[in-house]
Amino acid sequence: MAKKTRKPKKLKETATTYNAGGSVPAALPAFSGYITTKGQVVIPVALRKKYNITPETKLMIMDDDGRIIIQPIDALAIIESLRGCLADAPVDVVKELLEERARDREREDAEFKFNRVG
């Protein structure tokens, strides 16, 4: 039978964070979370709603000098940021692709004719 775990509670607005170098006051809202026996991190509901984190959301987990930083990855924002990045590219990608396909077609036609004759 699964063991019940207690729900995380929101801490005071000014909390003390701990890192490898000791404790330092932080002026950021702090939330309490926990790790399950399977190693899964439970993120409080308020933060999941604020950052639109759903069960399918990918997260980036970074190690920053004794701190673990968890940040949602917004794939759509990444794609949008790349839009137009090849607009000034010196090579016309479509033209290159069409030329490569024409060379492949000529090679395939030559192989087909050779195999048919022999």
Keywords:
single chain, 118 residues, alpha+beta, Pemi-like Protein 1, Chain: D, two-stranded antiparallel ribbon, 6 strands
Question: How are the SSEs ordered, and which strands pair?
Answer:
Blueprint: E1 15-19, E2 22-26, E3 34-35, E4 41-42, H1 45-50, E5 59-64, E6 67-72, H2 75-82, H3 93-117
Antiparallel strand pairs: 1-2, 3-4, 5-6
Structural description of this entry:
By secondary structure, this protein is α+β, with helices and mostly antiparallel strands. The protein folds into two domains: 15-78, Pemi-like Protein 1, Chain: D (Ribbon), CATH 2.10.260.10; 86-117. The protein contains three helices and six strands; from the N terminus they run E-E-E-E-H-E-E-H-H. The model is unreliable at 11-16 (pLDDT under 50).
Roughly what fraction of the amino acids lie in strands? 15-25%
Secondary-structure-based class equals: alpha+beta
In percent, how helical is the residue content? Answer: 25-40%
Provide the CATH architecture of the largest domain: Ribbon
> Which radius of gyration do the C-alpha atoms yield?
27 Å
